[in-house]
Structure formats: structure tokens, C-alpha cells
Write a structure and sequence with these properties.
By secondary structure, this protein is an alpha/beta fold. It contains 7 helices and 7 strands, in the order ααβαβαββαβααββ. The chain has a 7-stranded mixed sheet, with helices on both faces. Strand 2, helix 4 and strand 3 form a beta-alpha-beta unit. Helix 2 runs parallel beside helix 3. The radius of gyration is 16 Å and the shape is globular.
């Protein structure tokens, strides 16, 4: 799905980029055990900030970053002139890549936007190499069911009726053939979850 005006402003501000760089990406790097990466995929690249940080913290040789919103892809392209990074308009539930293509896949809070999120998980598993790693920062319906999350629910356009619970997400990842290697919740609110998962060999 595409961002509404409020979400667009939230995702395209310096504070969001600062938090990603100084806090979130350090968590993901610490819980990930992946070493050298030849080909990496980022789903929901937005304005390309996360793509730059993947390059900074994980140093892949090549990154393909996708987003459903053509406007965001154009912004990302204008902000990133690295020849090792390619931006494309694409649906994360229907990836135009061959099987077993990527060493690593990155998701910075995109899967909970996708109504048919299970299809997206299956696609990520398909394009990931055996024993490749998927590195995830995600929210769940639990996030929007308490505290400040109830306020977010009123102003953010999300597919709440189709959104998974935290436990459902972990269970389905296992059913899809992933092993959760590391897992961390953002304290004290425990609203954001960080995952490092390995694909079971096919």
C-alpha cells in the first residue's frame, strides 16, 4: 500500500533518519550474524534512507531496493547516486526476481502494510538463497492495540483487519521455512520487533 500524507511526512523527516542510523540499524547489525553479502534486497525502500544504511552497516556488493510507490522510488533515485544500488517499482507480494537470488533481504517496517502479507513472506523465502538471512524491523496489530498505538491507529492507514499478531507472525515465519536466530523487542514500549532469520535450505 502507499503512504497517506501523514505517513509520508513521518517517513520523510530528519528525525526518522537519525533514529534509523543511530539506533535501529545498530540493533539489526548486532543481532545479525551475516557476513559477506553479494546481492541484497530491500522491500519498501521509501526515500532511500534505509538503503544507504544497509550499505553503511552491512556493505553488500549490490542492493536492489523496491517500493510500490513510484513517487518514493523517484525520490530515492535522486538521493542515491551509488552505482551499486538499483531502485525499482515493485510489489513485495509479487517479486520479479529468480529463485535463490539474494543473500540477504531487509524489511524496515513494510510487511505490516501488506494485506496479503503471507504472500510476501512466501516471495521473500523464494528469492532468498538457502541459508540466506532476512533482517526485519516490524510492527504488528499488538502495536496498535495499546497506549500510543491506539492514537497511531486513528491517523495511519494500515490494513488492520488483515494485520498479524506478533505470535502469528513468528509462527508463520517458521511455517514458511525460516528459523528465528535472534529476536528483540524495543523497550520499554515493546512496540517494535527486530528479527534476524535464516532461511532453511530448500
Amino acid at each position: 500500500m502507499k503512504l497517506n500524507n501523514i505517513e509520508f511526512m513521518l517517513m520523510n523527516n530528519p528525525l526518522r533518519a537519525f533514529i534509523q542510523d543511530k539506533y535501529e540499524l545498530k540493533i539489526l547489525r548486532n543481532i545479525s550474524s551475516i557476513g559477506e553479502i553479494e546481492n541484497a534486497l530491500e522491500i519498501g525502500c521509501g526515500n532511500g534512507t534505509g538503503t544507504k544504511l544497509i550499505k553503511k552497516y552491512f556493505s553488500p556488493d549490490n542492493i536492489i531496493a523496491i517500493d510500490l510507490d513510484e513517487k518514493m522510488v523517484k525520490i530515492a533515485q535522486n538521493r542515491n547516486k551509488d552505482n551499486s544500488i538499483t531502485f525499482r517499482v515493485m510489489n513485495a507480494s509479487k517479486l520479479d526476481f529468480p529463485d535463490n537470488h539474494f543473500d540477504a533481504v531487509f524489511d524496515f517496517g513494510i510487511i505490516h502494510h501488506i494485506p496479503n502479507w503471507k504472500d510476501s513472506i512466501q516471495e521473500l523465502k523464494r528469492v532468498l538463497k538457502p541459508n540466506g538471512e532476512i533482517i526485519i524491523e516490524e510492527l504488528s496489530i499488538d502495536t496498535f492495540s495499546k497506549g500510543i498505538g491506539k492514537i497511531w491507529r486513528k491517523i495511519l492507514d494500515h490494513p488492520y483487519k488483515d494485520m498479524y499478531s506478533n505470535n502469528e507472525f513468528k509462527q508463520y515465519m517458521a511455517e514458511a521455512g525460516f528459523i528465528i536466530k535472534n529476536y528483540k523487542e524495543l523497550n520499554p514500549l515493546k512496540m517494535i520487533r527486530y528479527f534476524s532469520l535464516n532461511a532453511v535450505g530448500k
